[in-house]
């Protein structure tokens, strides 16, 4: 769930480098080799020397270089904190063949990263001194009956508008400018997840440019290990997706949205009740609880119900002391309701996973006096938990929710905010993490994000990117 929308409502690559401890790990699974599958070999060849021939590449695709008009705008991403990063080149791709040309020209010479929505929390979609592959020109949304084919550069606002007009539904995030690519590849937690599952659970196939420059189709029947990894294995890994095919559901005729406000000093009671209430609620109900730092710590709840407002009202009666706001909307109206601002925002964030009910006092105590910081606990369960943890790369299937630690920050206080977030991450006493809230400072991040799926993900990386063509600071690599 995207953080800014609920801060507003409650009153407060693979393509698209984004933008996850559990039960005992499953046995490691070796990559399969489906008949007819062409897998890139582990080359073991000495890397080429010297930078890419940008002039030659510019003759084939649209390329923006430092000093060109529009360079600063072309490299810009959502968080202004990363404005100082300077790619050596930006490839503005409009078709899969452009991506292939870019990868082939730069592979093993400079870092390569794809940008779809540009919401990577760590700025990984802006490779300093490397090649940014801008997928913004590949943004088509084509509804084909019960399926939709979406270009990797599409933003959620356009996905929802097209699906809503066609009477179809795809569970996804809320921030309108987030790209479909990073969201899907990290799993895709959203406001309809308990009813319909994660975004990645609806993926039918993906077109992917791998490290050898080949364009492959990953599905249950073609490149099945790659397909498994793309569903929750994180943006920036394994290849660059150029398009996704999803199955969709009929759009619900009514989605009732709500927010609950509570008196000051009630944060512990609110969190305790939320942890009891949501897991027992029907999957049609989704909710989060937002804890705001200060003295005292504030608490509010927001969410939605796939159904009419009268039925929702009965489910909210467990919070008799709350000031309640409820609206009944259609599918597209509900998605617009949850949309946050598209304006750029400077922040520092991290995450943990709420595997089981926690001591409310422990979670609230770390926020005392920390104004400008929020914990956003987004509910899981329902359809998310109906899928086995090792069925896709998204590991945290049995958790109650994800916990995002989000702090406002600008260039003047960014260092202090980063330190404060790190203190809270440690103080919460929780494990795990959500890779779409990627944090360079998260302890043991590989296990935190991928749990028992980490070993298999490394095996997939060894098969498809043995030379770390798409490597970055928190990339899944063979070693």
From TrEMBL:
It comes from the Bacteria. This is FAD-binding PCMH-type domain-containing protein. Belongs to the oxygen-dependent FAD-linked oxidoreductase family. Residues 25-52 are annotated as: Disordered. One of its GO terms (molecular function) is oxidoreductase activity. The keyword Lyase does not apply. It holds the Pfam family FAD_binding_4. Residues 1-30 form the signal peptide. It comes from Amycolatopsis japonica. Residues 82-251 form the FAD-binding PCMH-type domain. Its cofactor is FAD. InterPro entries: BBE, FAD-bd_PCMH, FAD-bd_PCMH-like_sf, FAD-bd_PCMH_sub1, FAD-bd_PCMH_sub2, FAD-linked_Oxidoreductase, Oxid_FAD_bind_N, TAT_signal. Residues 25-47 have a biased composition (Low complexity). The keyword Oxidoreductase applies. Keywords: FAD, Flavoprotein, Oxidoreductase, Signal.
């Amino acid at each position: 769930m995207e953080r800014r929308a609920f801060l507003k409502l409650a009153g407060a690559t693979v393509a698209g480098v984004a933008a996850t401890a559990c039960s005992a790990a499953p046995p490691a699974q070796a990559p399969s080799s489906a008949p007819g599958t062409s897998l890139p070999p582990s080359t073991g060849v000495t890397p080429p020397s010297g930078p890419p021939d940008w002039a030659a590449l510019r003759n084939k695709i649209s390329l923006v270089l430092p000093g060109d008009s529009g360079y600063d705008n072309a490299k810009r991403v959502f968080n202004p904190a990363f404005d100082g990063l300077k790619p050596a080149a930006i490839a503005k791709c409009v078709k899969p063949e452009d991506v292939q040309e870019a990868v082939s020209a730069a592979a093993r010479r400079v870092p390569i990263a794809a940008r779809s929505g540009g919401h990577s929390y760590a700025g990984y979609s802006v490779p300093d001194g490397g090649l940014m592959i801008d997928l913004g020109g590949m943004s088509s949304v084509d509804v084909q009956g019960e399926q939709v084919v979406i270009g990797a550069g599409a933003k959620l606002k356009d996905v929802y508008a097209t699906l809503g007009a066609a009477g179809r539904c795809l569970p996804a995030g809320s921030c309108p400018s987030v790209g479909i690519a990073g969201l899907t590849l990290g799993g895709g937690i959203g406001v309809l997840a308990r009813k319909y599952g994660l975004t990645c659970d609806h993926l039918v196939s993906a077109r992917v440019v791998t490290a050898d420059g080949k364009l492959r189709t990953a599905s249950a029947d073609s490149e099945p290990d790659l397909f498994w990894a793309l569903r929750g294995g994180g943006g920036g890994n394994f290849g660059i997706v150029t398009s996704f095919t999803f199955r969709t559901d009929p759009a619900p005729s009514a989605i009732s949205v709500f927010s609950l406000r509570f008196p000051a000093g009630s944060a512990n009671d609110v969190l305790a009740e939320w942890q009891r209430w949501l897991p027992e609620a029907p999957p049609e109900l989704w909710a989060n609880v937002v804890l705001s730092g200060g003295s005292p710590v504030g608490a509010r709840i927001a969410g939605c119900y796939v159904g009419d407002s009268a039925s929702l009202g009965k489910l909210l009666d467990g919070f008799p002391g709350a000031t309640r706001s409820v609206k009944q909307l259609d599918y597209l109206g509900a998605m617009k309701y949850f949309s946050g601002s598209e304006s750029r925002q400077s922040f520092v964030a991290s995450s943990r996973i709420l595997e089981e009910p926690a001591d409310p006092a422990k979670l609230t105590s770390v926020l005392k006096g920390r104004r400008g910081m929020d914990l956003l606990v987004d509910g899981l369960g329902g359809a998310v938990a109906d899928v086995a943890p090792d069925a896709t790369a998204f590991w945290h299937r049995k958790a109650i929710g994800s916990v995002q630690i989000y702090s406002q920050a600008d260039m003047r206080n960014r260092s202090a905010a980063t330190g404060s977030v790190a203190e809270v991450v440690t103080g919460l006493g929780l494990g795990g993490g959500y890779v779409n809230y990627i944090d360079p400072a998260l302890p043991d991040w590989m296990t935190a994000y991928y749990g028992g799926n980490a070993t298999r993900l490394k095996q997939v990386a060894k098969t498809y990117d043995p030379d770390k063509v798409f490597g970055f600071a928190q990339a899944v690599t063979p070693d």
